[in-house]
Amino acid sequence: MADSLKNVIAQSLECPVCLNTFTDPKILFCSHTYCKACLDNLLECHGNDQMLRCPVCRAETQVPNQDVSKLPANLALRSLIEDVKNHYHFCSVCKSEDKTQAVVYCQDCDKYLCITCHNTHSLWRDFISHEVLAISEIESGKVSVRRYRKCRKHPKEDEECFCSDCRRFACFRCVVMEHKDEGHRIIEAAVYENSHMENIEVLKSKAEKKRSCFQKYVDFIDEQKERVSNVQKQCTDDINKAFERSVRQLTENKEILIDEVKGKTEGVEKELDEMKKSAQEHITHLTTIADVVTNRTKIPLDMDALAAHDTLCQDLQEALKQEDPDYKQPMQSSKKGKRVTFKRNVGMDELTIGKIVNAVAKNIALPAENRMNAVVSTPDGRMAVGYGTSGVEIFSADGQIQQTVLKHVVIHGVGFLSDDRYVILDGSNKITLYTLEQTKLNVMFETLSSDEGGIANLTVDGDDHVYVSYRKAQKIQVFTPAGGRAIREIPCDGYEPEQITSYNDYMITASANTIRLIDKQGVVKYQLTEFSYFQYAAASQWNTILIAKLKHDVGLVSIDEYTNELKYVQNLIMDYKIEKPKCIWYYLRQYRSGEIALCTPDSLYIFH
């Protein structure tokens, strides 16, 4: 009876949240008690709210200035805990009234033993494998005593059952007397414990994925901030260089211009900071409540602990329902900052340095005039432009030529496999693979000749499947990187696939004035026709579709964003004037960093 009472007292000294002995216990308005550290975590989960909800009864307690230490302490419980810690454990085996102080505790026997009884216990063959703990290690906190779950009403009975409806453990006698009616679902306690731990692992995994999702969002915002900051630095440098070549009388104008740059960019940075702060608060909220729920090794036993556990799990489920971050918002904010540039006044008599303008696009003249044949994003986020004369030039997002490869290879189509190998389509519709070091590989592809298939185009999807479209044959062949025959063909009934782009599980085809979204069997899911424009499409970095509409005769381009059902979202570029090329042949692509690239046979335009 005494041991059972000890177990009841020990269980009553456990916090319903952390399941450990109370530390600095604080009382809520509803009279329930928790560790101060646990209440700090719960309050942090609710952000700036000064109201703390009790995990057991869900009553609310106002926390002055969000300071849990100002809540009343449970002095009686604190005193009881100290008494229990300082109380000597006496031998459970000695029969004399003058109890001997225990030196060890046997986990398997659930007995405290003095040195004499411990020596006798150690000699018994059946007890050799028992787990014995030193009292000194128990009192120092290095080890913890395994609690036996005994029924409070029937102390000699183990609580081997669990009622799912009452949310409590029970012995067999309690089940027969109190849980026999219809509506009580009784399962084995071990089954519940296993299910409980499995649910904890699932919640832990989901919480980690959601935290990782928002961390990527925060990292993306930092990238956008850095780009905006770089624009500010570049503008400031340009202004300073112009200022140094001018006279001292320009000092005042210089400072005005710098302040204008800061005014245009710092507002954007502030917007991004607010987005970042919101995302980080959600990460903190998610991490804190996930740690409270998942970082535990014990099973909640009594009704308060079970109620607290259920509440915390519900809070975590609510946090997991938070929608994934929308990257469009920081992208749109950063666009306002990235459009800022410095334009110097040249050949003017007035003593001014220049002015701040919104940059729309950078125009880079291509070295091989009228011979651009293919454009594709590189695995590292740059842009590769292939030429019919030969060679591939790789451009950074700011328009700098950073590399020239395959200088003696005629290019009609180019793609990249996941291991960075080049996939090259030549003028006779033959496919060749090259390593990253530009070594030609001995892999043959049985494509259609130019006589059979007509002019061809090429793209590579995320599974490293190579797609080749043929205008004359009006179909698309699909190959693996191993080469050989096509593993399947996709019909393009009634239209010529001039350009193809891989898009998730679909293909985007461009044919003069029509954009089609088709599945891998050739079924047209959605299509968009504009009779007044030539249309070219690209997959955006945010799972939408970008479409460039070209008025070739007057040299104007507009770029719009569409959903994956080809429904209009917004206009990005309106009637931007370009140098009209001789050939009606354009490519639209997007850099990983967000810039949009429009390539004509003569020029590469990079829109910020």
Automatic annotation (TrEMBL):
> Which top-rank group of organisms is this from?
Eukaryota
Where is each RING-type domain found?
A: 15-58
- Give this protein's Gene Ontology molecular function annotations: ubiquitin protein ligase activity; zinc ion binding
The residues the entry assigns to the signal sequence are none
* Keywords attached to this entry: Coiled coil, Metal-binding, Phosphoprotein, Zinc, Zinc-finger
UniProt-listed Gene3D superfamilies = Classic Zinc Finger, TolB, C-terminal domain, Zinc/RING finger domain, C3HC4 (zinc finger)
Q: Extract the coiled-coil ranges from the record.
A: 240-278
Q: Which GO terms describe its cellular component?
A: nucleoplasm
Q: Where is the B box-type domain?
A: 93-135, 146-189
Q: What is this protein called?
A: Uncharacterized protein
